[in-house]
Amino acid sequence: MSTDDDLSRSASLVRALFDQFQRAGARPQLVETHISWVLLAGEFAYKLKKPVRLGFLDFSTLAARRHYCEEELRLNRRLAAALYIGVESIHGDRDAPTWGGPGPVLDYAVKMHRMAADALAGAQLARDSLTQADLAQFAQRLADFHRAAPVAAADSPHATPGRIVDDALRPLAALPAGDAAEQGADLAAWLTAQAPQLHAIWMRRREQGRVRECHGDLHLDNVIRLDDGYTGFDCIEFDDGLRWIDVLSDVAFLTMDLQAHGRPDLASGFLNAYLEASGDYDGLPVLRFYMVYRAAVRALVASLRAAQGSRPAPALLSSHYLALALRLSRQWDPRLLIAHGLPGSGKSFVSWRLATCSGAIRVRSDVERRRLLGSGHYGTADTQGVYARLGEVAACALAAGYPTLVDAACLRRAERDNLRRLAAAQGVPFAILDCVAPDDVLRQRLRARAARGDDPSEADEAVLETLRGREQPLQPDELARTITVDTQQPLSAGALAAAWQRQTPEQRP
């Protein structure tokens, strides 16, 4: 912790700067968090770090604050170069400070362009203006960022199984006494029990290069809308180990925070968009652990803000995040739904709506085909490889406890049976989502899709005829587990989700 004198002197400096901006007619505003002050003045923002020493950071010395200001600038320019300008030194007397100039250095600030008041994703969400399309765009940007980020060296101390567990337990141990501490103890027990089960997966992900220099603090208010779309800013600069992490830990943070703010549909949409962009379905077994950990982080932050008297409305309470963490730790709902239908029948539209409504993991044959083979591959051998990949992803998602939706044509009985046997092997419910539409509608949709050029599917009318010749109709035993959707009619994703939920596991012979 910092001393009261350190904080008092720093607060006095901030007030003096505020007064200067006010006298200059800049109409300043002051935003305070548990670790910083941000002065908003004119078209700029100036972020000063509080001289605090907490369990997870140390800004107590002037040298440390300068270093971390420079790190903040370097790191945040990776995703938001247009926002970050430089590091400014503050000189002179605390009662009459100057930006630059003569006299001793009093402190440092990161200078940024001032963002619009409603630019944060949290503000957009509060206005109901944050859309699935916005999050899909950001998911693609985040996947590209992760793909280009440096990979942790094999001998790196970061994101080892021990470090992951320690980082997850630390915010729970720091919670104040009372109900929060009791909930924290329950969560700590769950996290500790998960560690042996996830150890080999964490090690494999390190070996596969999934530990990279990420953002580290990707909640809603650290995502911002700029001229070229949404991006991340204000990443972790004060602890390398909290930034050199599994890429899915970044993804888990925003996924969790969308759920915390009452939008599980947006959370599911963002997660599925990221998985499609990155192909990182192998990380699903560790996702729930990371979401619980990230909820614990936000619970501690809310607690610290409340203790400092700086919690802004309508910020969520610590108890809200802890309750979400407990729910996440207990969620387990594996079941498999496979789409069925010709190109243009609406499978992808219906499956997307259903996935966002039900929280399912969706994997698309068109996306995986292009990832595996590139463009223009619809041959029998090619298709077999794609369906093998779909089965691998579905098996991983089901084993991790998630409802899973395979978006593919599944026109051949063998393709359907292989996925049905997968569900039976895991003892989970299996169902078929049969999407139907008249031939003229199929052709019209395919022509419109080709004209737009915005879909990973390359199926045209020629492919439609080829696949129609390979189609093997659903048989009576399959129809008993089929949910049929006329995609010309209005869609009720909630009704479909309820019908899927009612499916039960098949009895093994």
Q: What are the main properties of this structure?
A:
alpha/beta; Rossmann fold; 3 domains; 5-stranded parallel beta sheet; 52% helix; elongated; single chain; Aminoglycoside 3'-phosphotransferase, Chain: A, domain 2
Please write the CATH class name of the largest domain.
Alpha Beta
Q: Structural class of the helix and strand makeup?
A: alpha/beta
CATH topological fold name of the largest domain: Aminoglycoside 3'-phosphotransferase, Chain: A, domain 2
Spatial shape? elongated
Question: Total strand count, please?
Answer: 17
Kindly provide the radius of gyration, computed on alpha-carbon positions and rounded to a whole number of angstroms: 26 Å
Distance between the termini: 64 Å
Please give the domain count. Answer: 3
Quick gist of this model?
The chain is built from 19 helices and 17 strands.
Can you put this structure into words, describing what you see?
It is a single chain. With 509 residues, the protein is α/β, with parallel strands linked by helices. It folds into 3 domains: 4-113, no CATH class; 121-330, Aminoglycoside 3'-phosphotransferase, Chain: A, domain 2, CATH 3.90.1200.10; 335-501, P-loop containing nucleotide triphosphate hydrolases (Rossmann fold, 3-Layer(aba) Sandwich), CATH 3.40.50. The chain has 19 helices and 17 strands. It has helices at residues 4-23, 62-80, 121-126, 132-148, 161-173, 179-207, 240-243, 247-260, 264-278, 284-308, 318-330, 347-358, 365-373, 380-399, 413-426, 439-452, 461-470, 476-479, 493-501; strands spanning 29-32, 36-41, 44-49, 53-54, 57-58, 84-93, 96-99, 105-113, 211-213, 223-226, 229-232, 244-246, 335-340, 361-364, 403-407, 430-436, 482-486. A 6-stranded antiparallel sheet has the order 1-2-3-8-6-7, with helices on both faces. A 5-stranded parallel sheet has the order 14-15-13-16-17, with helices on both faces. A two-stranded antiparallel sheet has the order 4-5. A hairpin with a 2-residue loop joins strand 2 and strand 3 (44-49). The chain is elongated, with a radius of gyration of 26 Å. The model has no long low-confidence stretch (mean pLDDT 93).
